[in-house]
From TrEMBL, chain B:
Transmembrane segments: 9-30, 99-122, 134-157, 177-196, 235-261, 281-307
Family listed: Belongs to the binding-protein-dependent transport system permease family.
PROSITE patterns cross-referenced by the UniProt entry: ABC_TM1
Stated name of the protein: ABC-type dipeptide/oligopeptide/nickel transport system, permease component
Entry keyword annotation includes Transmembrane: yes
From TrEMBL, chain C:
Family matches, as SMART domains: AAA (SM00382)
Top-rank taxon, per record: Bacteria
Residues covered by the ABC transporter domain: 14-257
Chaperone in keyword set: no
Similarity annotation: Belongs to the ABC transporter superfamily.
UniProt-recorded name of the protein: Peptide ABC transporter ATP-binding protein
Family annotation (InterPro entries): AAA+_ATPase, ABC_transp_ATP-bind, ABC_transporter-like_ATP-bd, ABC_transporter-like_CS, Oligopep_ABC_C, P-loop_NTPase
Molecular function GO labels: ATP binding; ATP hydrolysis activity
Membrane topology field: Peripheral membrane protein
From TrEMBL, chain D:
Keyword Glycoprotein: no
Chain segments annotated as coiled-coil in the UniProt record: none
A family per Pfam: oligo_HPY
Family: Belongs to the ABC transporter superfamily.
Source organism (scientific name): Chelatococcus sambhunathii
Keywords: ATP-binding, Cell membrane, Membrane, Nucleotide-binding, Transport
Primary residence: membrane
InterPro entries xrefs: AAA+_ATPase (IPR003593), ABC_Ni/Peptide_Import (IPR050388), ABC_transporter-like_ATP-bd (IPR003439), ABC_transporter-like_CS (IPR017871), Oligopep_ABC_C (IPR013563), P-loop_NTPase (IPR027417)
Matching PROSITE patterns: ABC_TRANSPORTER_1, ABC_TRANSPORTER_2
Protein topology in the membrane: Peripheral membrane protein
Name used for this protein in its record: Oligopeptide/dipeptide ABC transporter, ATP-binding protein, C-terminal domain
From TrEMBL, chain E:
Protein name: ABC-type dipeptide/oligopeptide/nickel transport system, permease component
Domain of life of the native organism: Bacteria
Keywords (A to Z) from UniProt: Cell membrane, Membrane, Transmembrane, Transmembrane helix, Transport
Originating organism: Chelatococcus sambhunathii
Subcellular location: Cell membrane
Similarity remark: Belongs to the binding-protein-dependent transport system permease family.
Pfam family, one: OppC_N
The keyword Transmembrane helix is annotated on this UniProt entry: yes
Membrane topology designation: Multi-pass membrane protein
Transmembrane segments: 22-46, 84-110, 130-156, 250-273
InterPro entries for the chain: BP-dependent_transpt_permease, MetI-like, MetI-like_sf, OppC_N
Main subcellular localisation: membrane
């Protein structure tokens, strides 16, 4: 659905209001949607996702050829891809980059133990072999944070000193707390054909893209209304009515964008007790939390399943434990856990995502009603990410995730993720899920996993929510996405 | 005069030294190991031990203090934890908006406060005077962040006269950047004009009762000249002090205002640093801002030389 | 070395010897009082006169140890006050008191008159309860106020009345010596006379000894038995007041007496109008401190501080030319 | 309320040729809230050409307010509420200063009537050189260039016997002593050659020896220049030295005006008499054996201007008081050649 | 010179009521304090009572000031927030007074202490108030108590400076000298003669510090570096209402007005007291 060529204008600069500042610009080492959103413009991966969330090639010529036993991946690279420093991308760069990813990236580390070999077959072919089959590998390689980005072999220090990627835009200047300035990379070789989600052709209409950190959600709204930002990310849904009918901006609703969750500390503290986790599960009222966080019902769905309707992974297994809002039952469980009613349960949350904070506040009231002493720790997102790594510092933290194409990508499932859900039964299911290549069997495995999740309550899924953003009516060619990207977008004069 | 300058200079250095000491103490009263706090929870014990050694935290307090002084003299304020750059650079990069914001606020505040204060003192007891006094007190009661919110709503969102937030992009011209400062400067300026107005009024009242003002009148001089030439110039001396003080206080207002207007200035940096537990940045900002305050005061002391012959002597 | 004469009468209550006081200020040491020696006979009123800044107040405060003297001694009833430790001094505080010039700032505005006087009584544990009240009432009556005034605050009184309260406070501890620092200078003439009368009555009645500081020569002449003339911290002339007034020997004393305005248009005096201003005590002239304004100064005056020479019993002068200049200053001419 | 301004000619007729200034029944009040401080409550006084009128009175008797009323420089709540201040300008016309428009008043201040104040330390602006301050005055009233004004300023400093006048012009007030500043004030006041100089306690803050210098200077200047002086003081000694005529004030009123010798020889008001008796006088106050005699103070205190007694304000303290003194206020009546007294019983004195 | 007199206690109350602004200021701040004190009786709802269905309701008969995003009653919260805001302000002021008076008196009386204290006062004043408070809170760890302590420390030097300056003046006054001449012990001179005469300037200054401390607390809370955001103070209320500006303005307007009213009335009181008690400025009236 490419708009008529005539209307596509080359040139222009857009300001994108993002929700905060980034601690680092290395999407391999760190995770986070914000990081992925920004860096995907200048760092690219071998694969990416299309509109239907299927893995599709990006720097790779085509999808990998997988051996019948599912253990050997042969990846053919595109020819003529150059880095921002002018050098050509070769298999050598890819191998080095993938090694870096396997060592440093949280998602890479999932694969690392399973790795049997990684080598360049020729200048444009890379072969990766596994000890055991691993179904989600291609999806992992397609991800934009904790991402397997391809860097020039000589320029991959940790931390990164230079930001040399292959993307359609390149980093020109970064002023902390002020802006990240990207300019068009003229040596970019787009894929043939039409754009398709993150895949397909990436067109470079805009001269410049500026990501401006605007941590205050309200300022993002006001800035959008005033026309200062061409795109404003993740706005409070309450602003929808205000954005409607403005001449300098328009609301952009992304239905079933993702799901907020309360992650419990399974490693240290009170929440390691199953009864406590079950108590939280029993106490929370998802309706209220969602209503408080997202306002009108059209912005959220009260749903306990890990995938919304329409996804092949959808199942209701275990969800009878969801959205109970039953303080009495919770109290009993709390009592059973031997909790003294005094030891503070620390809920770590951030205001950068205002809905996290609001859900935290509602949850706090429900949990108090269940007899827990709640201590809300409100920090900025960067701090939260830092702190959650230390099991001594928190009991519950709040985060959210988009609906990911493969359950293997769901961040909190592996035991390495802060929360440390480390359960032999789960590990077994997860390994099986990853190793299984048959889709039907995988769905069955996932159903068991979801049921186990509700039994063990390592985390609490709050529901599904829609995301609100705003964009200038002049900004065309933009496709709504959980990680907004601005290649293919252009400004109407 | 040299004596005066020397005296002030020594005084300034003494205060500076105490400021440094206080900052040193503030950082030490933070509970827990400063190195651990500085490095954040991700740090390994080895990292922490290394930093402790680098900062000399394993040394006795006196040695630590001397080390801290030594680093300062070298102009080293440490390394930001979050921003991955030296604190000095982080501060320098953010100096411009804060500097101009402060400057404009002071100009706005003075432009309002001086004439109004003078007139209100001159017409003391009248309705005008009462109105001014009440208004000044009212203005001083408005939280600057609240006023900022109101100004954004009215002038940026509804009327669209000024940008809502930020400090312009990479190629923003100086003028564009300044246009970002108008609303915050007004928000700060109005609030601080209250203080200056009241002070100008009080100072003028003092001076207007002085004998030499009566002498000037007894010469047959017109009122305007009496007030401007004989009263205002004399009243200016304490007023200048307050303007200087306000300039420094504005930095504190800037902390709030910059946050409201998302201005990438020192104030914003401090708030983010607190939220990110970036202690070296907090420490550095405290030091630099206090130093600026001390310098401004010193500058005003030096200005006195121009205005007041008594100190020249 | 200055040789100070004893006052006529012999019984010396206070003997000040070589008192010096230097204040250390930002612009250098101020020589407020330099090498001052004089005696105060029991029951006598000694006047200290001098222009502003001559060190009158400082001398008085030093004697009472309200500022620490730099040098010298003050022998009070046989004991050198300057050598007493703070503790021992407290016993002597009872025996010496001070009255101030400013009737407004010398009374604590937040205290009732009764408490102001009562504090003096309490500090030395002189009376309690009813006896204390009676004593306050008595003191108030004695200074010409009424006992009901004890309940009032200082601001409810006029300047003269306040001065009376100050006097009552000083008298409350039954002192032997009172240093009165310009007690009437701030008062209107009509009230000044009332207070002067009161001081005299009390002095007679209680046998008080007084150091009366003033710059009003007429008042000093009227009230004082002896007079000490200070200039830039030094004594230039001292002696029994009738003697000094009748026969001033120092050019400064002469000038002072000749220029003091007399409320009688028929008196025409030969005036000695001094040129210039008093030099700064930061940097006083060498030798005789008065020489820069003295019409009779010669070179020798700059060389050494002139010694005190006795010119008649109890009357001494610090001027090397006093003998050649001896002429009476005041001549009455009827217009 | 203020008197209606009459045409100049009838005013001229009311003022004898030798009189420069005549205040007639002047009332100046300070109105604070509902209360009026009657600081000047019927002052009548006369300054003759080329003479010095000393106004003497105790603190608060209204001397300064009288002089400020004449200059129309009253501080905020102060207002002339009644009375006339007739002034003969150098060109012979007589004006009523009480009602003169401010603009014309400005031309009179400094040029016709100049004033010096009690506090030499604070009466000069510390931020300008004395030369600037004198030149400012000169150029305000005369069309002189800076250079000419400076020359005149120097001459004025020389006139008041300031040594090294040229250098002093460029000095600031704080670099001078009190006596020197008072000389500068006099130079400033005389720099436009005023016909009348009002001096409000110009020597009170000074030491006796300096006071003598200044009095001497003023006396000589008056003789040489021939201006009239209204000299305010509370010191009867100073009055005796400088005045031709004396007006005695008490509680906002002039109670007696007379030539100086007459007043001291035979005061015709009990207050004046009381004042003179208060001042220690060695001859009078010593018994034959040298023992001190008591002084004769005036009993009681000066009444508050907020609450003046009805009738004669001196009645509560007066030894001659009669019942009717407390009911009716006496007028200022002749009591001898050139002698006026505000007492019903002045003949008894 | 004649205006040295200081009004004694008995007439003070009458005089205070005579001054319109002072009386108004006093009435308003007392009313606010009363509301805060009686919050449980007055507030129609519990301050933290969620009622998601009633979220973001505009002011009405049921919700006088409307509701917030959790359906909590802004009116009740404003009243309860007043408790905390006033407590923080008052406690910080008391704390500042205790430190400030002690330091100021010590500096004014003991030369040797003065050298150090005066220096510290100057240096402390070099830090902008909010910035210093932020740093202190950051160092001590954010909590209600630390905010109070931090603000107390921030404002203590202002008071100390005034107390020190006045002490230096008063200790040279003749009536203190008279007490010394009588042999009155130093500590009694400090309390009876000096401190007692400092009551008015301290009272005036304390009133202003109270006002500033409340503003500062609001700023800290607004920035999210002070009182924890779920504790309702006026500052935290504005902070959370901020994103509803233009949509649910009542969330920011009412707490904002509450701050302005309290600070204004405190300033009116301070100003009025100064007029009343400070003889030097009194002559202007
Ligand atoms: N505390 C002080 N510090 C510095 N200098 C002082 C101090 N007290 C007095 N002096 C100086 O000492 C000198 C003598 O002062 P003192 O007050 O004794 O004079 P005085 O004769 O009482 O004058 P006055 O008539 O004005 O009361 C003056 O030059 C004065 O400036
Ligand atoms: N600005 C004013 N407001 C109110 N009352 C005033 C004002 N100025 C003067 N007064 C009152 O007017 C009365 C006369 O004051 P004035 O200054 O004329 O006295 P004075 O005779 O000059 O006394 P002094 O010898 O003390 O200078 C005093 O009682 C004084 O309180
Ligand atoms: Mg003295
Ligand atoms: Mg006067």
């Amino acid at each position: 659905a490419t708009p008529p060529t005539l209307a596509q204008e080359r040139g222009g600069v857009i300001n994108v209001a993002m929700i905060g500042e980034l601690a680092s610009l290395d999407p391999t080492v760190a995770t986070g949607d914000l990081l992925g959103t920004v860096t995907q413009h200048f760092f690219e991966t071998l694969f990416t996702f299309d509109k239907e969330w299927n893995v599709t090639p990006l720097l790779a010529e085509k999808l990998p050829e997988v051996s019948a036993d599912g253990r050997v991946y042969t990846i053919t690279l595109r020819k003529g891809v150059t880095f921002h420093d002018g050098s050509a991308m070769t298999a050598k760069d890819v191998v080095a980059s993938l090694h870096r990813w396997l060592e440093l990236a949280a998602r890479g580390k999932l694969v690392q133990p399973n790795l049997a070999g990684l080598e360049a077959v020729d200048d444009h072919t890379v072969r990766l072999s596994l000890k055991e089959p691993f179904a989600p590998l291609a999806a992992l390689l397609a991800f934009n944070n904790s991402a397997a980005i391809i860097l020039p072999a000589g320029k991959m220090d940790n931390p990164l000193k230079e930001y040399v990627g292959t993307g359609p835009y390149m980093l020109k200047e970064r002023k902390a707390d002020q802006y990240i300035q990207l300019v068009r990379f003229d040596g970019y070789q787009a894929r043939e054909g039409d754009p398709n989600g993150f895949g397909g052709a990436r067109k470079q209409y805009l001269d410049e893209i500026r990501f401006v950190p605007v941590p205050d959600a309200n300022t993002r709204v006001e800035g959008a209304i005033a026309g200062q930002y061409d795109y404003a990310d993740l706005l409070p849904v309450e602003a929808y009515d205000r954005l409607n009918g403005q001449d300098k901006t328009e609301p952009l609703l992304l239905k079933s964008f993702g799901w907020p969750m309360f992650i419990m500390n399974n490693k240290q503290g009170m929440m390691t007790k199953l009864e406590m986790r079950k108590a939280v599960q029993a106490a929370l009222n998802a309706d209220d939390m969602l209503a408080a966080a997202f306002g009108k019902p059209e912005f959220y769905t009260v749903d306990g399943a890990l995938y919304p309707e329409g996804y092949p992974w959808r199942t209701d297994a275990g969800t009878e434990a969801y959205n109970l809002g039953d303080p009495e039952k919770a109290k009993e469980l709390v009592k059973a856990a031997g909790y003294d009613g005094k030891q503070p349960i620390r809920i770590l949350t951030s205001r950068q995502y205002e809905f996290h904070y609001k859900m935290a506040q509602v949850a706090a009231e429900y949990l108090k009603a269940a007899g827990l002493a709640i201590e809300l720790q409100v920090v900025d997102w960067a701090t939260l990410v830092q702190r959650r790594a230390d099991p001594a510092l928190w009991d519950i933290f709040i985060t959210h995730s988009p609906f990911l194409p493969d359950p293997a990508l769901i961040a909190p499932l592996p035991a390495t993720y802060p929360g440390w859900w480390d359960n032999p039964e789960k590990e077994k299911l997860l390994v099986a899920l990853n190793a299984e290549l048959d889709q039907n069997k995988r769905v069955a495995l996932f159903t068991d996993l979801q049921k186990l999740l509700y039994d063990q309550a390592p985390l609490y899924k709050v529901g599904d929510f829609s995301a609100l953003s705003a964009k200038s009516p002049k900004l065309k060619g933009y496709e709504a996405s959980p990680w907004p990207y601005f290649w293919n977008a252009y400004l109407e004069k | 005069m040299t004596r005066y300058i020397l005296q002030r200079l020594l005084g300034m250095l003494a205060v500076m030294f105490t400021v440094v000491t206080i900052v040193f103490i503030i950082v030490r009263i933070a509970p827990g190991d400063p190195a651990a706090v500085m490095l954040g929870p991700d740090a390994t014990p080895a990292d922490i031990a290394a930093l402790r050694a680098r900062l000399g935290l394993d040394q006795p307090l006196v040695v630590q203090y001397l080390f801290f002084l030594g680093q300062l003299i070298k102009g080293d304020l440490g390394q930001s934890i979050f921003l991955d750059m030296p604190v000095t650079r982080a501060l320098a990069e953010r100096a411009e908006p804060t500097f101009f914001l402060t400057l404009f606020s002071i100009l706005i505040a003075s432009a309002i406060a001086l004439p109004v204060g003078i007139l209100s003192a001159y017409k003391r007891g009248t309705l005008f005077d009462q109105a001014v006094t009440t208004f000044a007190m009212f203005a001083a009661s408005i939280p600057s962040f609240w006023l900022g919110l109101v100004l954004i709503q009215v002038f940026a969102v509804r009327l669209g006269w000024f940008p809502v937030a930020g400090y312009g992009g990479p190629d923003a011209s100086f003028l564009t950047r300044l246009s970002h400062l108008v609303l915050p400067a007004v928000a700060l300026g109005v609030v601080s004009s209250a203080l200056i107005t009241r002070f100008t009024r009080a100072s003028m009242l003092d001076v207007l009762n002085d004998d030499y003002v009566r002498t000037a009148r007894s010469k047959g001089m017109g009122e305007f000249r009496v007030v401007m030439r004989h009263a205002f110039k004399n009243a200016l001396i304490p007023v200048l002090t307050v303007i200087g003080l306000t300039a420094a206080l504005l930095v504190s207002g800037a902390v709030v205002t910059e946050t409201v207007f998302s201005l990438p200035g020192v104030g914003n940096l401090v708030v983010s640093a607190v939220l990110r537990r970036d202690y070296p940045v907090i420490q550095g900002a405290l030091l630099v801002i206090a130093a600026i305050y001390v310098l401004i005061n010193f500058g005003i002391d030096m200005l006195y030389i121009l205005i007041d012959p008594r100190v020249r002597y | 070395m200055s040789q100070s004469p004893s006052p006529a009468g012999g019984d010396v209550l206070l003997s000040v010897r070589n008192l010096s006081k230097r204040f250390h200020t930002a612009s250098g040491p101020v020589k407020a009082v330099e090498d001052v020696s004089f005696d105060v006979g029991r029951g006598r009123i000694v006047g200290i006169v001098g222009e502003s800044g001559s060190g009158k107040t400082t001398a008085g405060r030093c004697i009472l140890r309200l500022v620490e003297p730099s040098e010298g001694e003050a022998v009070f009833d046989g004991v050198d006050l300057f050598k007493l430790p703070e503790r021992a001094l407290r016993a002597y505080r009872r025996r010496m008191q001070i009255i101030f010039q400013d009737p407004y700032s010398s009374l604590n505005p937040r205290m009732r008159v009764g408490d102001i006087i009562g504090e003096a009584i309490d500090t030395h544990g002189l009376a309690k309860g009813a006896a204390r009240q009676a004593r306050i009432a008595d003191l108030l009556t004695r200074v010409g106020l009424s006992p009901e005034h004890a309940r009032r605050y200082p601001h409810e009184f006029s300047g003269g009345q306040r001065q009376r309260i100050g006097i009552a406070r000083a008298l409350a501890v039954e002192p032997e010596l009172i240093v009165a620092d310009e007690p009437v200078s701030a008062l209107d003439v009509s009230v000044q006379a009332q207070v002067l009368n009161l001081i005299q009555e009390l002095q007679k009645e209680l046998g008080l000894t007084m150091l009366f500081i003033s710059h009003d020569l007429t008042v000093v002449e009227y009230l004082c038995d002896d007079i000490v003339v200070l200039y830039l911290g030094r004594i230039l002339e001292q002696g029994p007041s009738r003697e000094v007034y009748a026969n001033p020997r120092h050019p400064y004393t002469k000038a002072l007496l000749s220029t003091a305005p007399i409320p009688d248009p028929t008196v025409r005096r030969e005036r000695v109008i001094l040129q210039g201003d008093i030099p700064s005590p930061l940097d006083p002239p060498s030798g005789c401190v008065f020489r820069t304004r003295c019409p009779f100064a010669i070179e020798a005056c700059a060389r050494a501080v002139p010694p005190h020479e006795s010119v008649s019993p109890g009357h001494s002068v610090a001027c090397i030319r006093q003998a050649e200049l001896a002429t009476p200053a005041t001549q009455k001419v009827t217009a | 309320m203020a008197a209606v301004l009459s045409a100049p000619s009838p005013l001229t007729a009311t003022l004898p040729e030798d009189v420069v200034l005549r205040a007639e029944d002047l009332h100046t009040h300070f109105i604070v809230g509902e209360r009026a401080a009657k600081s000047v409550d019927g002052v009548t006084l006369t300054v003759r050409r080329g003479e010095t009128l000393a106004v003497v009175g105790e603190s608060g008797s209204g001397k300064s307010v009288t002089s400020l009323s004449i200059m129309r420089l009253l501080a905020h709540p102060g207002r002339i509420v009644a009375g006339k201040i007739l002034y003969r300008m150098r060109d012979g016309t007589v004006v009523d200063l009480a009602t003169l428009p401010e603009k014309r008043m400005r031309a009179i201040r400094g040029k016709e009537i100049a004033m010096i104040f009690q506090e030499p330390m604070t009466s000069l602006n510390p931020l300008y050189t004395v030369g600037d301050q004198i030149m400012e005055m000169i150029r305000l009233h005369e069309p002189l260039s800076r250079h000419e004004a400076r020359r005149r300023a120097r001459q004025m400093l020389e006139l008041v016997e300031i040594p090294a006048a040229e250098k002093r012009l460029d000095q600031y007030p704080h670099e001078m002593s009190g006596g020197m500043r008072q000389r500068v004030m006099i130079a400033l006041a005389l720099s436009c050659n005023p016909a009348l100089l009002i001096a409000d306690e110009p020597t009170t803050a000074l030491d006796v020896t300096i006071q003598a210098q200044i009095l001497d200077l003023m006396r000589r200047l008056q003789r040489d220049i021939g201006m009239s002086i209204l000299f305010i003081t509370h010191n009867l000694g100073v009055v005796a030295e400088i005045a031709h005529e004396v007006a005695v004030m008490y509680a906002g009123r002039v109670v007696e005006q007379a030539p100086v010798e007459a007043l001291f020889a035979r005061p015709r008001h009990p207050y004046t008499k009381g004042l003179l008796a208060c001042i220690p006088n060695p001859e009078r106050d010593r018994a034959a054996d040298g023992a001190r005699l008591m002084l004769n103070p005036i009993p009681g205190n000066v009444p508050s201007v907020l609450n003046l007694p009805p009738g004669c304000t001196y009645a509560p303290r007066c030894p001659l008081v009669e019942p009717h003194c407390e009911g009716e206020a006496p007028g200022l009546v002749p009591a001898g050649p050139g002698h006026l007294s505000r007492c019903f019983r002045h003949e008894l004195l | 010179m004649a205006a040295v007199s200081i009004t004694p206690a008995p007439r003070l109350t009458t005089l205070m009521l005579q001054r319109k602004t002072l009386a108004i200021g006093l009435a308003v701040i007392l009313a606010i304090a009363l509301f805060a004190l009686l919050a449980p009786l007055i507030a129609p709802y519990a301050p933290n009572k969620l009622s998601i269905v009633n979220r973001l309701k505009p002011p009405s008969g049921t919700y006088f000031f409307g509701t917030d995003e959790f359906g909590r009653d802004i009116f009740s919260r404003t009243i309860y927030a007043g408790r905390l805001s006033l407590t923080v302000g008052a406690a910080a002021t008391v704390f500042a007074c205790v430190i400030g008076i002690t330091l100021g008196l010590a500096a004014g009386f003991f030369r040797r202490a003065d050298a150090v204290i005066a220096r510290i006062i100057d240096a402390m004043m070099a830090f902008p108030d909010i910035l210093l408070a932020i740093a202190l809170v950051a160092a001590l760890g954010p909590s209600l108590t630390t905010v109070i302590v931090a603000l107390g420390i921030v404002y203590a030097p202002r008071l100390a400076r005034i107390v020190r300056a006045s002490t230096l003046v008063i200790r040279e006054l003749p009536y203190v000298e008279a007490a010394r001449a009588l042999g009155v012990p130093t500590w009694r001179i400090m309390t009876r003669h000096v401190l007692r005469n400092l009551v008015s300037p301290i009272l005036v200054q304390a009133t202003f510090i109270f006002a500033y401390a409340m503003l500062a607390e609001a700023s800290l809370s607004f920035l999210g570096v002070g009182v924890s955001p779920e504790i309702p103070t006026w500052g935290t209320m504005i902070a959370s209402g901020r994103q509803y500006v233009g949509q649910a303005d009542w969330m920011t307007i009412f707490p904002g007005v509450a701050i302005i009213l309290s600070v204004l009335s405190l300033q009116l009181v301070g100003d009025g007291l100064r007029d009343l008690l400070d003889p030097r400025l009194r002559k202007d009236l």
